[in-house]
């Protein structure tokens, strides 16, 4: 009887041990760069929610890296969420205050919100850091046009169009913006908001 009681007690303890809750710590096998690349893949596949999640996780994994925050802003911008895009770019600039891409994208998001003076400020900073970047010049021209500075915008776009090869995908947009600028009267504020 004593052996049977011990066997039952042993089996009871053994089964109770199996039923006890366990804490399992899972770790993400992807580092920040891989997580960012996953976000790029989701973005390319037309999955913005998954891209946003991946970029947020990449930014959290490496608090010194600004690119996931720029990418986060870009997804919000593509969705027309300009305030959220602005937040992503500002956070990127807190991590890397000298990033001209973040400055340019911030300028564009500010222009889309009708905040002309800030858009002019940030577009000038981006273009000062990378004066040969045609995209930055187009953003600056857009901000100038929206602020009613048509002649400056046209001159800047003329330079962009001279420098861009004929097959550059930016060329049609730059040409359309120049035509839009030419239709505006000098000093007329051209609203770029939809």
Model description:
By secondary structure, the chain is mainly α. Helix content is 71%, strand content 0%. The chain is built from 10 helices and no strands. The protein has helices spanning 2-19, 32-44, 48-61, 67-78, 82-95, 100-112, 116-129, 134-146, 150-163, 171-183. Helix 3 runs antiparallel to helix 4 and helix 4 (67-78) packs antiparallel against helix 5. The model has no long low-confidence stretch (mean pLDDT 90).
| Poorly predicted runs of 5 or more residues | none
Topology, number of strands: 0
Shape: elongated
Helix proportion of residues, in percent? over 70%
Order of helices and strands: HHHHHHHHHH
- Determine the strand fraction and express it as a percent band: under 5%
Distance between the termini: 87 Å
Total count of helical runs of at least 4 residues: 10
- Provide mean pLDDT, rounded: 90
* CA-atom Rg in angstroms: 27 Å
* Structural class by secondary-structure content: mainly alpha
Largest sheet: none
Question: Can I get a quick summary?
Answer:
By secondary structure, this protein is an all-alpha fold. Helices cover 71% and strands 0% of the residues.
Keywords:
194 residues; mainly alpha; 10 helices
Topology overview:
Elements: H1 2-19, H2 32-44, H3 48-61, H4 67-78, H5 82-95, H6 100-112, H7 116-129, H8 134-146, H9 150-163, H10 171-183
Helix pairs in contact: 2-3, 2-4, 3-4, 4-5, 4-6, 5-6, 6-7, 6-8, 7-8, 8-9, 9-10
């Amino acid at each position: 009887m004593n052996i049977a009681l011990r066997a039952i007690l042993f089996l009871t303890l053994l089964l109770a041990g199996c039923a006890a809750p366990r804490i399992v710590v899972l770790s993400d096998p992807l580092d920040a760069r891989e997580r960012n690349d996953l976000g790029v893949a989701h973005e390319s596949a037309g999955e913005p929610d998954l891209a946003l999640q991946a970029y947020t996780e990449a930014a959290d994994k490496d608090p010194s890296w600004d690119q996931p925050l720029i990418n986060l802003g870009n997804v919000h911008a593509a969705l027309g969420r300009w305030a959220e895009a602005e937040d992503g770019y500002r956070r990127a600039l807190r991590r890397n205050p000298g990033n001209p891409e973040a400055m340019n994208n911030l300028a564009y998001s500010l222009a889309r919100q009708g905040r002309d003076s800030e858009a002019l400020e940030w577009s000038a900073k981006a273009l000062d850091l990378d004066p040969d970047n045609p995209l930055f010049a187009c953003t600056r021209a857009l901000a100038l046009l929206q602020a009613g500075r048509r002649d400056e915008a046209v001159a800047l776009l003329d330079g962009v169009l001279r420098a861009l090869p004929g097959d550059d995908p930016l060329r049609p947009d730059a040409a359309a913006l120049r035509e839009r600028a030419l239709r505006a009267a000098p000093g007329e504020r051209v609203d770029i908001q939809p």
